Amino acid sequence: MLKLSTKGRYGVRAMFDLAQHVGEGPTSLKSIAERQGISEHYLEQLISGLRKSGLVKSVRGAQGGYILGREPGKIKIGDIIRVLEGPIAPVDCVSEEDPECCAKAEFCVTRTIWEKVRDSIADVLDSITLETMLEDANKLESERSLYMYYI
Amino acid sequence: MLKLSTKGRYGVRAMFDLAQHVGEGPTSLKSIAERQGISEHYLEQLISGLRKSGLVKSVRGAQGGYILGREPGKIKIGDIIRVLEGPIAPVDCVSEEDPECCAKAEFCVTRTIWEKVRDSIADVLDSITLETMLEDANKLESERSLYMYYI
DNA sequence: TCATATCTTATTAAAACAGTCGGGATTTGT
DNA sequence: ACAAATCCCGACTGTTTTAATAAGATATGA
User: Fold this and answer.
1) How high is the pLDDT of residue A45?
2) Which CATH number fits the domain that encloses residue A55?
3) Less packed terminus of chain B by CB within 10 Å, N or C?
4) Total domain count for chain A?
């Protein structure tokens, strides 16, 4: 159904949460889960993958938590989605990595459609970084203030 | 995982098959299933939805089968996908029809990302018709002949 | 009337999804 | 040294979706 699972959605929200607290030292999983309304144990599983891929770093022990693995401007939404949901591939024969082609792939008209879909999704997800999201959030926030002011 | 199910994939192939036999009278489900290597019974379920939505018309009885509901140029891949897989919606809160929004939707930064993904998918799927596919197939076929000739 | 088709409903095995649970390892403040 | 906070890891579970399969009813041309 071309649906994203909760893995991708929760993951992006958690990463955005970390971006909003960048420079404040490690953020605990518990606080992210509370702010985002996500099960803590479940989020733990997801962030485990993000840590292994280097998108976040962990600090163990009391007062520990997670910090972004690199600057918000260098973390694309596509990076997060690929870690949590696997390579972008509306159908397996056009997967970004090791596509399982059938014999007719070379001359398959249907296949070219899925390639276009894949590329258009990847383009969108790779054009947005956590930095972009922070900027957008600031814009929305100031618009909101204006709106509240004039009411 | 942003995956299309077999419904969408088989459906597009079946519709393309019908487009290739346009003007030849009704095509039986059995022959489509055989050419496309799809379970006949399963395809039956899928085409039922296509018929109800008017994308195909059925002719019952012996020598019966299915024909396209309108010209290949007026059937977009997006039409087929929407019938078989439902409205395009990478997440429910940005569904093409009756999105289930949460309270924060108005100021949700994550949401705008999924809207962009939805629109880019819809743009691709609505820019391709069965007619386009027929043209592409002809091009591929002539390229193939050339290739075979020079070997 | 009979072979050929489409239609309709029900059932099912396997996989994916979305968690839940229990315990371990590591660091910090006291 | 010890308790609290926190990350780390593997196993388990209920629900939903997927991808069929099966069986029979209905319609029609020859």
Assistant:
1) 98
2) 1.10.10.10
3) C
4) 1
What's the average model confidence in pLDDT over B24-36? Answer: 97
Q: What is the pLDDT of residue A102?
A: 83
* Separation between the CA of A60 and the C1’ of D7 (whole angstroms): 5
Structural domain contains residue B1: no
State how far the Cα of A95 lies from the Cα of B151, in Å rounded to an integer.
Answer: 30
Nearest to A104 by CA among B71, B13, B120: B13
8 Å CB contact of B16 and A88? no
Pairing state between β A56-59 and A65-68: antiparallel
pLDDT > 90 fraction of chain A, expressed in percent and rounded: 83
DSSP summary character for residue B37: T
pLDDT in tens, B60-105: 999 999 999 999 999 999 999 999 999 999 999 999 998 888 888 8
Strand C-proximal residues of A, range 43-82, CB below 7 A, are: 44-45, 60-64
Q: Please give the residue range of the domain that contains residue B40.
A: 6-150
CA distances from A21 to A14, A140, B127 (A): 11, 18, 42
Report the pLDDT averaged over residues B105-116.
93
Of A4, A125, A128, the CB nearest to B91: A4
Closest CB from B1, B88, B112 relative to A136? B112
B80: nearest Cα among B17, B144, B136, B21: B17
What single-letter DSSP state applies at residue A134?
H
Work out how many CB contacts closer than 8 A connect A with B.
Answer: 97
Nucleotides of D under 7 A from a protein CB: 3-11, 17-23, 26-30
Contact B110 A133 (CB under 8 A): yes
Looking at residue B145, its pLDDT comes to: 76
| Inter-chain touch B13–A110, beta carbons under 8 Å | yes
For residue A133, is it within any domain? yes
Judged by CB atoms closer than 8 Å, whether chains meet at A144 and B110 is answered as: no
Residue B108 forms part of a structural domain: yes
